[in-house]
Amino acid sequence: MNLATVCETGPVDSRSRAVRTPAGRFARAGVEWALARGRSRLYQSGSQFRILRKVSFKPGADESVDMEVQNVTADAEVFTCNAYLVSGAEPTLVDAGAMSGVVDVVREHTDELSRVVLTHQHGDHVGELDAVLSAFDPDLYAYGDHPERTHTLQDGQELTVGAEAFEVVYTPGHADDHVSLVGEGALFSGDVVVYNDGAFDDGSFGRTDYPGQSREQLVESIEHLLDRLPGSVDRLYAGHGDVYRGDVRGVVERALERARRREPKYPDE
Ligand SMILES: [Zn+2]
After folding, report:
1. Which fold has domain 69-260?
2. Is the separation of the CB atoms in 127 and 78 below 8 Å?
């Protein structure tokens, strides 16, 4: 095992006011974040940034390991959202789902879960949350109030999910407390944008026909999401339906067009 300090420099991306690192990640100045193999600290001075990174590596090891994501509720026979277990320095569960036994599925992959991040708190996303919290005692990140919440999510905040840095984007409309997680390679979209579901294929979105929901607000949220979505994102992990690999911006754009046309998602809407 070796330890090295790597210094990287480059321009700050003024469009997003974020810093895009040579490794393709982004971060905010002064923020320390975990990489797959170490921790980095970012320094910003004017329009330039500098990164000090402590890297530990085994000689000859593959340095390009992809972030691994498992849908741990894939075998559910009850109505649940997709719950995604993301491996890395911060093993993270994005939503807990509502499938009893999800704790056992998580345990098949990891003994340690450092955080649970909630996209929102509808029942199909939090039904098994208490069981997950008592099994692994992770930190709980949520935008909306929750008695077990340890960290409040805010729009624009940076958050490590598994091995990669994500930006929290507040995306209400389907739910008041909804956030999406935007990375350089992946998007966790909760119920705001869905690749496919029973209603639409190749660009669907969360329902907005219940009290307190708003299609107008959802449309604005998808617009914000698109503004902040790098073109490099090629994996979409949505709260329902299939995982999508490919041009994620295209899927989000098609969902936006459909939502803008006020296409009813369900016959009674
Ligand atoms: Zn929902």
Report:
1. Metallo-beta-lactamase; Chain A (3.60.15)
2. no
